[in-house]
Amino acid sequence: MTGTSRAAEGGKRGPRVRSDCWIRVELRDRGGIEVILESKVAGMYGRSIEDLVRQGCAVMGLEHAAVTIEDQGALPFVLAARLETAVRRAGHVPAAPFLLPTAEHTLYASRPDRMRRSRLYLPGNEPKFYPNAGLHEPDGVILDLEDSVAPAEKDAARCLVRNALRAVNFYGSERMVRINQGERGLEDLDWIIPHNVHVVLIPKVEDPQQVKAVEARIAQVAADAGVEAPVLLMPIIESALGAWKAYEIAAASERVVALTIGLEDYTADIGTGRTLEGTESFWARCQVVNGAKAAGVQPIDTVFSDVNDTEGLRVAVREAKGLGFVGKGCIHPRQIGEVHRAMAPDEAEIAKAVRIVQAFEEAERKGLGVVSLGSKMIDAPVVKRAQTTVAMALELGLLDEEWRDGLKENQR
Amino acid sequence: MSKLIENAAGRMVPAEINGAAAVPFQGVGKFRPTGRKACPRIATCNDFSLDGNKVTESLIQALKNAGLRDGMTISTHHHLRNGDRVANAVFAAAAELGVKDLRWFPSASFPVHEPMIQHMENGVIHHIEGSMNGPLGDYCSRGKMRGMAVLRSHGGRYQAVQDGEVHIDIAVIAAPTADEFGNATGDRGPTACGLLGFALADSEYADHVIVVTDNLVPFPCIPWQIQGNNVDQVVVMDSIGDASKIVSGTTRITKSPDRLLIAELTARFCDEAGIITDGFSFQAGAGGTSLAFAIFLRDMMRERNIKARFVRGGSNKYLVDMLEEGLTDYILDGQTFDLDGVRSMRENPGHVNTSPFTSYNWHGKGNFAGMLDVVVLGATEVDVDFNANVVTHSDGRLLHGIGGWQNCLFSKCTILPIPSFRDRIPVLVDRVTTLCGPGELIDVIVTERGIAINPQRRDLLEQLEGSSLPIRPITEIKAEVEEIVGGKPEQPEFGEKVVAAIKWVDGTVIDCVHQTGG
Asked: Domain A105-343 has what CATH class?
């Protein structure tokens, strides 16, 4: 924004807008704050909206302005973001950002080794999807500042995502933000890192240096803001060069917990189209799996973009699981359950894993060097995989916590 | 200004409605009507031609023949829904005849009936007793109607006719197919709508009955959903309705992930509550969430090879598919919501048409409502005592009719799947703006943020103990919603004038609606 303009607007208006608002701010030299409100909830929240606007202007050090609002039932965190965006665009540099109190329920932590089977993309400038996103129980929600946000709305999305991180209950889903590429992405970090972000997704990574730059900026912002919890990283491979360097990128920082791939840009980069079978991206996806595994992080697959094709999604997730991926991107909440079901070990897998782990523990107890099941000898990696399956089945509630007792009873 | 008295639900209601004394709500099942039913005037065959021909050349002439005059009560029906042309034609003719102060007694009104506002402005219509949707609801809410609106359930409308609370002078029945004698059916013809059950009481009790059709067939019209023996005149119009608008707009399955989640939770609740067993019965409304619920239910039934004995319509494609697939023995249908329903009603012997008399009638010796194992309904608001509102917005403006909603509450398990808030407007509140359904009849609220079981249903609470479903106290879900929307809403300001009375199924007044500004 140029800083010379005296009036500007933020937010959305029109007949199809809901749970959002449009705010126009006109800076004035005198006359205090004038609020002109038109709202579908005026009878219920009119006074509260006006109070919020006056409080916001005070916080931002704005003394004289006309604030016009067309409200379609925007929640307070949205109203606050739209107001701040309009004020900044009008050329007023806020004395302080307009932050509403952080809700207690946003202050939970994540951990590097948590399950990341599903991650739900939420467009950064579409607040109506936020409040219920976590109810669909994705392992992670991604507030996206990159591709889903039009270039002219990047500033608005930053404000909105920052406010959402402080206000919205994502009900235990891992809180992720996808930043923009390059310098703009580093600036995004200034806005979001102080507000309990668990994972930053870095788009179009082609060089470990990019990961290091993000890590350094996060360290700086976190130190300034007094953020103690480590912010985790998930680089996205979206080009031939990125795919080529998958391992180096995955190993670029201790903070990297997962590596993922974006196929639209990748297929464009190698000069081909994207097909349902995905032959063209087979190598790159295997490269991501192997790069991630080599670096000891989780390989996560791309999104499945046909929302209506449930069967296709199921097949795609099984295939991804078969390649070694442990997660899939979701662009619609109804995909989450399917992904979880398809990623979970089935009954036969669990039963087999239980038998192997049982044989292993039996051998340990007897001090045997060799684990055997029936007439077959079981190798160490097979035991390890079975242990992973049992652990996952326990976490998903597919196996009873008392499974060892059950086994003993069965043996008797 | 009508005097207000407190009823058993703690609501202040008018003691008098349009000049007649009204009984305040006394509690569910407390009011016992006495005396005898109203009866129609005695007719005689002397007045009718032996050849059975009752055709009159025009609607206006038929109204003249019927003796239309100032202050009469005229009834019409909503079988053609938003495609109806007959009700508007009736009042246009009345206006042309210079008649004033009529009471319109529709079984429901739709946005297509907006011209009635003009008739109220110029004095042709005095007031409306029926559902208040769209522009009519708005007009009434602003206090512009001369009389007080009276909103009744489908069963309550039948009750009011039967016990003489409402005497219909002239009933005009839009019939997709009829013969010269007045036998009529809704299941065929160019404007086929399914059935004509809402006109049944009117055909039996009104002083004068006019059947209006655009598809006159030679005697006999088979089936005869309306019996010609109750009909005075038959009028042929070019078109009684716009067939494309007969299909209700709310019959598409929701695509909203949040509503799908609510529907899925509802189906899972029914499952864990042990409701989905062989031979069970259910009724789901026409809304997108209810339809999605029916689909989830259907999938469970298929998977486990469970068959329902009957389902209650509003029928639609999905219920018809279930019938034709053998997942239910019968559809007992109150109205058909789409053309598949109409076709099925014509073709399937297991698709049976019903009326408010069979399904909901208060003066009957029992009715079907209480036999349903589970009913899934909508609501605009629910409060912490499980009381629900279905007729007004949270700002107090009328926007819906009651339909069969109140009657359905008597099922063995009544579930309201609703979002906990819409945009910023809380649906879970401390006290509903307008009381339509007493909490003691509402068993379960399913929201995207959790399922609340009415504490009075200890059996359900016990059955669901240890369930993986998100079962929570209603107050806890409400508190969460208030945190999201930024606190409790301010209370809307109402005018003193009572613009509408809300009747309970027994004819008592359960609540009223006050004028809203603006």
From this structure: alpha beta
